[in-house]
Design brief:
It comes from Halobiforma nitratireducens JCM 10879. It is a multi-pass membrane protein. Keywords: Membrane, Transmembrane, Transmembrane helix. This protein has helices spanning about 5-20, 30-40, 50-55, 60-95, 105-115, 115-140, 145-170, 175-200, 205-225, 235-255, 265-270, 275-295, 295-305, 305-310, 315-340, 345-360, 360-385, 390-410; strands at about 40, 45-50. It is an all-alpha fold. The protein has a two-stranded antiparallel ribbon with strand order 1-2. Strand 1 and strand 2 (about 45-50) form a beta hairpin. Helix 4 (about 60-95) crosses helix 7 and helix 8 packs antiparallel against helix 16 (about 345-360). The protein starts with a helix and ends in an 11-residue tail after the last helix.
Length: about 425
């Protein structure tokens, strides 16, 4: 990634500060990442997130900042609790089906004797009872059914992980990579449909799409590192090439075999696409992505704002870049169920763009993007169900409305928190 002059200027200022504090030639990745997270000024906006070291602040301003942080933390905590509840529902839905009992008979006895089966069934029914009460108060007939809870759970988890990964992509000017990997996932759907039709395999289609998407992500990274083209050329080639392969495979397959799945549902998103196995896949991907980001937060932050300095600090930049792209591929496949191939990139970018209009630091951008992403999902679901419209388009329209509102209330006249 090539840094511009503003980036170099900002890094130099913080690099000098690190030299003064630590007294050695190169700051380690943790200290540099912390400096980036808390103290990068947006050039041309007059906003410095490290206000405690640059200018005295009044007590009222400090109280306002503290209140702002508390509200954000409470919001993120509530989203976390909601996501945990949805993962719990998906786990109960899985356990009540005696997973693995058909392949290994003694498992069924184990589930019964240990009380896992009756406990899982009882708790699962409590979700449906709560849904029946929701239907009573809302005047609907949806939440008393398990399929609607699976759809809602999948959407809530998408609202967490898509902005989480998208925050890094947007600040690295890699927004197009999400669209590219979505088209790669579409090629994976086409490959999966043909594979299932030929072999009769009864597994979930999304697993094949996930495999193809991850291979495509590794291919993009390989092309980027080993070609002399401009940075977005390999991405554009992979975007058009994968979509072309997908359309050719589907057209060719329809000539000699029946394909029982409507491709339009994967293109534009549909609640009917979300299956029990698809929701379980989304739950596993969410836990994995959140765990990886939590462990590698500072390293990813470091390479996001100063890749060259990260190389000097002897970070394995190539490995972390690959990790970020693979996580993007994973999120795209999971989100494709609800948003569709064409619109999935919107959840990676739009909530982050809205958060960047009002956030004062990278961490605050991360928090706000998750909150805006969750509002987009829940608002989009509400609009889609009330008007009998596709879920994907409804979610993106709500996300854009939040983005426009963020612009309206923002006091910025220049760039966002990104130093690019």
């Amino acid at each position: 990634m090539t840094e511009n002059e503003d980036h170099d200027h900002t890094h130099d200022d913080h690099g000098d500060h690190a030299h003064d504090d630590h007294g050695h030639g190169h700051a380690d990745d943790a200290s540099d990442a912390t400096a980036v997270d808390g103290g990068i000024a947006s050039h041309g906006t007059g906003i410095d997130t490290d206000t405690a070291t640059t200018a005295p602040t009044s007590s009222s301003a400090v109280r306002t900042t503290d209140l702002r942080e508390r509200v954000q933390l409470v919001g993120v905590a509530l989203v976390g609790l909601l996501a945990a509840a949805m993962i719990g529902f998906i786990a109960l839905d899985w356990l009540r089906r005696y997973p693995g009992a058909e392949a290994f008979g003694p498992l069924e006895t184990f589930y019964t004797t240990t009380g896992i089966d009756p406990a899982a069934g009882y708790l699962f029914e409590q979700f449906l009872i709560a849904g029946a009460w929701f239907d009573y108060f809302l005047g609907t007939e949806l939440f008393q059914y398990a399929f609607m809870w699976r759809n809602l759970a999948t959407g809530v988890l998408i609202g967490v992980v898509a902005p989480l990964v998208g925050t890094y992509l947007v600040h690295r000017q890699m927004a197009l990579i999400g669209e590219t990997l979505a088209h790669t996932a579409f090629a994976g759907v086409a490959v999966g449909l043909l594979f299932i039709a030929v072999t009769g395999w009864e597994g979930a289609l999304l697993y094949i799409a996930l495999l193809v998407s991850v291979i495509g992500a590794l291919g993009v990274q390989w092309l980027t590192e080993r070609t002399n083209s401009f940075g977005d050329v390999p991405i554009a080639i992979m975007l058009t090439g994968s979509f072309a392969v997908g359309t050719l495979l589907i057209s060719w397959g329809r000539g000699f075999m029946s394909i029982g799945i409507e491709i339009e549902e994967f293109l534009f998103g549909s609640l009917s696409v979300v299956s029990a196995s698809g929701s379980r896949l989304m739950a596993m991907l969410t836990v994995g992505v959140v765990a990886v980001v939590a462990v590698t937060y500072k390293q990813l932050l470091f390479i996001t704002f100063d890749e060259q300095a990260a190389r000097v600090a002897r970070l394995n930049v190539s490995a972390y870049n690959t990790l970020l792209i693979v996580m993007t591929a994973v999120v795209v496949v999971g989100a494709m169920q609800v948003l569709g191939v064409i619109l999935v990139a919107g959840m990676l970018v739009i909530p982050v763009a809205a958060a960047s209009q009002i956030a004062r630091s990278f961490r605050e951008t991360l928090y706000l993007s998750i909150l805006f992403g969750q509002l987009s999902i829940l608002g989009g679901y509400t609009f889609a169900l009330s008007q009998s419209l596709p879920s994907g388009g409804s979610i993106i329209v709500v996300a854009i409305a939040i983005y426009l509102l963020a612009i309206a209330v923002s006091d910025r006249t220049g760039g966002t928190i990104s130093v690019h």
